[in-house]
Amino acid sequence: MAEEKNKKFKIVPYRYLDKNRIYSNYIEVAKTGTDLSIKFCDIRPPENKEEVNEVKKTGEIRAPIEAEMIIPLPVAADFLRALRLQIADKENNQ
User: Fold this and answer.
1) Domain ranges, ordered by start, for the chain
2) How many angstroms separate the CA atoms of 50 and 3, rounded?
3) Dihedral sign (CA 21, 22, 25, 28)
4) CA proximity to 28, closest of 61, 74, 2
5) What mean pLDDT, rounded, does the chain reach?
6) Is residue 2 pLDDT above 70, yes or no?
7) What is the phi-psi region of residue 14: left when phi exceeds 0, alpha when psi lies from -120 to 50, beta otherwise?
């Protein structure tokens, strides 16, 4: 029984066939006391002159949220470490 408690498991991510990847060219991050919110947006150019004029008038570009992830702060720390490792690996292999 003690041997079963000490057994380590490997987590293997996979994607359901009906779940698509999401492109994001803008990210907004916010923190509460217990978790981190990451909003993934896709900013697109204005589609017509009215949208261009609205952006000029308001000074705002609307960015549709394509996905939002809420993760506990301990997981966020692991996420940050993983991102740093991936970026360092990319920089070292250029």
Assistant:
1) 20-92
2) 67
3) negative
4) 61
5) 90
6) no
7) beta
Two structure tokens written together for 42: 């896709």
Query: pLDDT tens digits, residue range 35-72?
Result: 999 999 999 998 899 999 999 999 999 899 999 999 99
Q: Tokens in use for 15?
A: 């994607």
Buried b / exposed e along 45-57 (16+ C-beta atoms within 10 A): eeeeeeeeeeeee
2: tokens are 């003690």
4 has pLDDT over 80: no
DSSP letter at 18 equals T
Record the tokens describing residue 52, joined without a space. 């261009």
What distance in Å separates the CA atoms of residue 91 and residue 94, rounded to the nearest whole number?
6
Task: Please report the pLDDT score of residue 25 as a whole number.
Answer: 96
What's the whole-model pTM score?
A: 0.72
d(CA 26, CA 91): 22
